[in-house]
Amino acid sequence: MAALRYAGLDDTDSEDELPPGWEERTTKDGWVYYANHTEEKTQWEHPKTGKRKRVAGDLPYGWEQETDENGQVFFVDHINKRTTYLDPRLAFTVDDNPTKPTTRQRYDGSTTAMEILQGRDFTGKVVVVTGANSGIGFETAKSFALHGAHVILACRNMARANEAVSRILEEWQQGAATTVYCAAAPELEGLGGMYFNNCCRCMPSPEAQSEETARALWALSERLIQERLGSQSS
């Protein structure tokens, strides 16, 4: 896969690994196509799997899509001040199979609450859960809490409510998983400017992308540091 080659991982057993002489590219509207440099031709289907793919979601924060003088799409990473012809979203492509729609519902009786909320960020949201000390209520409260929500446990028994809170807090030991994944995952090498929650790429909130808010936060940080250093010197 091109994203893996970009990260320096040519030797892989993945079925998505391209044969020698092939290159993965994207169109302006996000469709993936494959260039065969040996035979000087292109095609929509992956040369090994026969699947068609498209990139998922918008470009990461700080990235911009441009077109060169030859009409080929390239990408500008304004944060790291570099350009590349590799679409940073290629690590997150999805299969496209319009001719074979599935009738299976997205979720069923075996689906867990954590699976439904995968990739979602509820930071800033308040969730009130009744009967949250056991059963469905507890699983609901835990799932929303682990996805950033401020959860209020409405329970009749305070002791059981406190016990439920302790059990949820024990789950936070896994909180470093996303940080470790972003730091160590080979498929993310060379990519930046993206937001991850629970090891899944998510769209940051509009506030998080505000240049005005970023400048204000930077100015506030500088002021607090200067005040701290000033108090220590005096």
Describe the structure.
The protein is an alpha+beta fold and 234 residues long. The chain has a 3-stranded antiparallel sheet, with no helix packed on it. Strands 5-6-7 form a 3-stranded antiparallel sheet, with no helix packed on it. Strands 4-8 form a two-stranded antiparallel sheet. A hairpin with a 4-residue loop joins strand 2 and strand 3. The N terminus is likely disordered.
Q: Provide a count of the helices.
A: 6
What is the N-to-C order of secondary-structure elements (H for helix, E for strand)? HEEEEEEEEHEHEHHEEH
Shape: flat
Rounded Rg: 23 Å
Based on the coordinates given, report the CATH architecture of the largest domain: 3-Layer(aba) Sandwich
Q: Overall mean pLDDT score?
A: 77
End-to-end span in angstroms? 58 Å
Taking the sheet with the most strands, its summary is: 3 strands, antiparallel
Total number of domains:
3
The counted number of beta strands is 12
**Percentage of residues in strands:** 15-25%
Into which percent range does the helicity of residues fall?
25-40%
Uncertain residue segments: 1-13, 99-104
CATH class of the largest domain: Alpha Beta
* CATH domain fold name of the largest domain: Rossmann fold
Computed structural class: alpha+beta
Strands in their spatial order, largest beta sheet: 1-2-3
Organism: Propithecus coquereli (Coquerel's sifaka)
Keywords: Apoptosis, Cell junction, Cytoplasm, Golgi apparatus, Lysosome, Nucleus, Tight junction, Wnt signaling pathway
InterPro entries: NAD(P)-bd_dom_sf, SDR_fam, WW_dom, WW_dom_sf, YAP1
Region (Disordered): 1-24
